[in-house]
Design a protein that fits this description.
It is built from 11 helices and 16 strands. The protein is an alpha/beta fold.
């Protein structure tokens, strides 16, 4: 059912990712023009990620009618597989953003969980988007909420879940490069977009970073490749010590803002640097595995991959984190995350480069559903 008004009107807010989950939602990749070799490698990595998460919380995989049997045969029995059409499998961006409310009422009819169904235009519309037809993606959030029998807050604003991170205590971080991009909501001002974030996420303070990770052209700089909260008052920032790396300027720019910003509770932010892997580029072999049918954004050899260790998933009791085959920085990422999340098991996913080839990473392919408060 659709609820009128905003989530804030009803006492809802978006909880932090570390709040307890009831389950995790994922899609199942298949597009031959985005996942090489008919997605066999991509599916192997989605299987790895889903299996890792399922050790800590229930997982539901959505697969298209033509892929349901394939997904069901590959995935462990403890993972639910449901049939759902989609244009691609980026459920962070096409799935609902779940919101919760704490209520003193004992009424069983009062929902404590709902979902925001943002508008979506394939990360930029007909001219700048990643593919030309996103009609099935537009229905993903509504279908998930229907399956769970949860209320829906529809919204006309174009926004993807990977463009926002919250601390659950009134603060949101995002990037101007994405949310203020003319290919999203050109009719809205920065102040108007900020007001929508406050009304729908239940936040009081929005921290705007100018740009996202260098090379993250597909999403126009989603914040989940750049910066995320560890806990209230603490963030991780995609960093590089290499002054010749084009990302260095972006990282320094973001660090300056974060070091001079307080959160909604007035706390000065503590910033932990999480170094990116050495520059990774798409190979000739990887490009050759794609079947270009003229609809998806081309991925030519030599394209720098948007690889970031900040793009991890916080599961119940665990951090599911990418590894890119760069041993120095892979190991460093595990060390930093172990220190940042001392009470959670760090679960490295080897070969996560395969997900990056498709344009995102572990956080991009997952969507947490919070437990009832």
């Amino acid at each position: 059912m659709d609820l009128k008004g905003t989530p804030s009107d009803h006492g809802f807010y978006m909880p932090a990712e570390w709040a307890t989950h009831s389950q995790c939602w994922m899609g199942w990749p298949e597009r031959p023009d985005n996942w090489r070799d008919n997605a066999v490698h991509g599916q192997r990595l989605f299987l790895k990620v889903a299996s890792a998460i399922s050790r800590f919380e229930p997982v539901t995989i959505c697969a298209s009618p033509s892929q349901w049997s394939n997904a069901r045969s590959q995935l462990p029995e403890n993972i639910r597989v449901v049939e759902m059409s989609m244009n691609d499998s980026w459920f962070r961006d096409t799935g609902p953003t779940f919101v919760v409310r704490k209520s003193q009422s004992s009424s069983e009819n009062l929902h404590k969980i709902a979902g925001i169904d943002w508008n979506f235009n394939s990360w930029g519309g007909v001219e700048d988007g990643c593919y030309a037809d996103w009609s099935s993606d537009l229905l993903v959030a509504r279908k998930i909420l229907a399956i769970e029998r949860l209320p829906r807050f529809p919204h006309s604003i174009i926004l993807e879940g990977g463009s926002i991170h919250v601390d659950g205590e009134g603060t949101c971080v995002t990037t101007e490069e994405c949310l203020l991009n003319k290919n999203r909501n050109p009719h809205l001002t920065k102040a108007q977009i900020e007001n929508e974030l406050k009304a729908y996420l239940g936040v009081e303070k929005v921290i705007w970073l100018p740009r996202g990770l260098f090379g993250d052209d597909d999403t126009n700089g989603h914040v989940d490749n750049m910066c995320c909260f560890v806990k209230p008052g603490m963030v991780l920032l995609s960093w590089t010590d290499d002054v010749s790396d084009p990302h260095y300027e972006r990282a320094v720019e973001a660090l300056s803002i974060l070091n001079n910003t307080a959160d909604a509770k007035g706390r000065k932010l503590e910033v932990i640097k999480l170094h990116v892997p050495g520059p990774l580029y798409m190979t000739d072999e990887e490009t050759a595995g794609l079947v270009q049918v003229g609809e998806a954004k081309p991925r030519p050899a030599g394209t720098r991959l948007a690889a970031s260790y900040v793009n991890f998933y916080i599961a119940n009791g665990a951090i599911i984190t990418p590894q890119f085959g760069d041993k120095k920085w892979d190991d460093e990422a595990v060390r930093v995350l172990s220190s940042a999340f001392p009470d959670r098991e760090i679960v490295p996913i080897e070969g996560a480069r395969e997900i990056v080839l498709g344009g995102g990473n572990i956080h991009c392919i997952t969507q947490q559903q919070p437990a009832s408060p």
